[in-house]
């Protein structure tokens, strides 16, 4: 099921605050090459990255661009990637999302530098 989510346009990534309150965010998503994982990308200073750093237990499901769920969510585990692996995820995002993906990733690099964003590996729980 998780690789099917990686083929979709948007993924609803739900992270959890310290008190257990869920916070859902729509993100771009790509599939892995030879593993049972999907990958997302985010700026390092976002709340979702801080929450994943603290607790990698997440829920993921399909959604639209506004974050409206389009199906059921599943429990998963998220891990932040090192910079070299994050570079690969940024490249996959640019390939999948075309010009808009390229502009977004390029703009992020201009604003934040190479280390200002991070790849997120998501596997089934």
UniProtKB/TrEMBL annotation:
The record places domain Pyridoxamine 5'-phosphate oxidase N-terminal at: 10-118
Going by the UniProt record, its keywords in alphabetical order are: Oxidoreductase
Family matches, as Pfam families:
PNPOx_N (PF01243)
Q: Which InterPro entries has this protein been placed in?
A: F420H2_bilvrd_red/Heme_oxyg, PPOX_F420-dep_Rv2061_put, Pyridox_Oxase_N, Split_barrel_FMN-bd
Give the GO cellular component terms, alphabetically: cytosol
Q: Which SUPFAM superfamilies match?
A: FMN-binding split barrel
Q: Which GO terms describe its molecular function?
A: coenzyme F420 binding; oxidoreductase activity, acting on the CH-CH group of donors
What name has this protein been given in UniProt?
Pyridoxamine 5-phosphate oxidase
Question: Which source organism?
Answer: Lentzea aerocolonigenes (Lechevalieria aerocolonigenes)
């Amino acid at each position: 099921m998780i690789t099917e989510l990686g083929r979709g346009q948007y993924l609803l990534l739900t992270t959890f605050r310290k008190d257990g309150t869920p916070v859902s965010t729509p993100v771009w998503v790509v599939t892995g090459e030879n593993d049972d994982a999907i990958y997302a990308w985010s700026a390092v200073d976002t709340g979702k990255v801080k929450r994943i750093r603290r607790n990698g237990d997440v829920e993921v499901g399909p959604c639209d661009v506004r974050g409206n769920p389009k199906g059921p969510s599943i429990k998963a585990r998220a891990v932040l990637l090192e910079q070299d692996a994050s570079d690969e995820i940024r490249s996959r995002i640019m390939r999948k999302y075309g010009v808009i993906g390229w502009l977004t990733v390029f703009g992020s690099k201009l604003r934040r530098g190479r280390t200002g964003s991070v790849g997120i590996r998501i596997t089934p729980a």
